[in-house]
Amino acid sequence: APRIAQGYETLVQHATKGIRMMPAKGGNPALTDAEVADAVAYMAIKAVRILARQHTDFPPARIPGGLGYLS
């Protein structure tokens, strides 16, 4: 959850440009920025759903792109 709390834009930036030992675009330069952003959104949504099931006090998460909230 700490990484998700950094915000969607930060997660996408780290995924597309790399951070620390993680290479840009997961080491696949053929991926477009949009494909990487889609993968980040997919993983974040999955993680939030798991956390929401495990912790009843977990706050709803905002879905990127103004699509509403997950709970």
Topology:
Blueprint: H1 2-5, H2 8-17, H3 33-54, E1 61-62, E2 69-70
Antiparallel strand pairs: 1-2
Helix pairs in contact: 2-3
Radius of gyration: 13 Å
Kindly state the percentage of residues in helix: 40-55%
Order of H and E elements = HHHEE
* Terminal residue distance: 14 Å
Mean pLDDT: 79
Number of helices: 3
Report the sheet with the most strands, covering strand number, pairing sense and barrel closure: 2 strands, antiparallel
Shape: elongated
Uncertain stretches: none
What structural class should be given to the helix and strand makeup?
mainly alpha
What portion of residues belong to β-strands? 5-15%
Strand segment count? 2
Strand neighbour order, sheet with most strands: 1-2
